[in-house]
Amino acid sequence: VQLQASGGGLVQAGGSLRLSCAASGRALSMYMMVWYRQAPGKQRELVALITTGGTTNYGDSVKGRFTISRDNAKNTVYLQMNSLKHEDTAVYYCNKAGTPWYWGQGTLVTVSS
Fold first, then answer.
1. What SS3 state is found at 66?
2. pLDDT at 1
3. Are the beta carbons of 106 and 5 closer than 8 angstroms?
4. Which of 5, 54, 84, 91 has its CA 20 to 30 Å from the CA of residue 16?
């Protein structure tokens, strides 16, 4: 399975970005999907997840600001990030819950304060 995360970039604090995670080789609709992030010098942390039925859950630090969604027809999972903060700066990855597929490069989000 190849996962391609995209949509990152440089944004000012308070701004918004939408990340996309496209997959080839598997139908993402069959899996609970998760967005993770890893900031420099820190461990990877869960940001948001979405079940096959569309139920979502979020890390405490992003609740109310980030929204995870999926478009099964496009085999893509999204992460809408609003009210971005400097501490959201990280490389963002998507993967399935449980035993992960190959992680890929992720997409870098840099929030300037």
1. strand
2. 86
3. yes
4. 54
Match 């995209």 to its residue by tokens. 6
Report the amino acid identity of residue 57. N
Distance CA 53, CA 70 (A): 10
Nearest in space to 37 (alpha carbons), one of 92, 77, 85, 81: 92
Cβ neighbors of 7 (< 8 A, separation 6 or more) are: 17, 18, 19, 20, 107
Residues 6 or more apart whose CB falls under 8 angstroms from that of 85 comprise 13, 111
- How many whole angstroms from its chain centre is CA 79? 5
**How would you classify residue 53: left for phi > 0, otherwise alpha for psi between -120 and 50, otherwise beta?**
alpha
Distance from C-alpha of 50 to C-alpha of 33, rounded to nearest angstrom: 5
For the chain (113 residues), the mean pLDDT of every run of 10, in chain order, is: 95 98 93 97 97 97 98 96 98 95 93 94
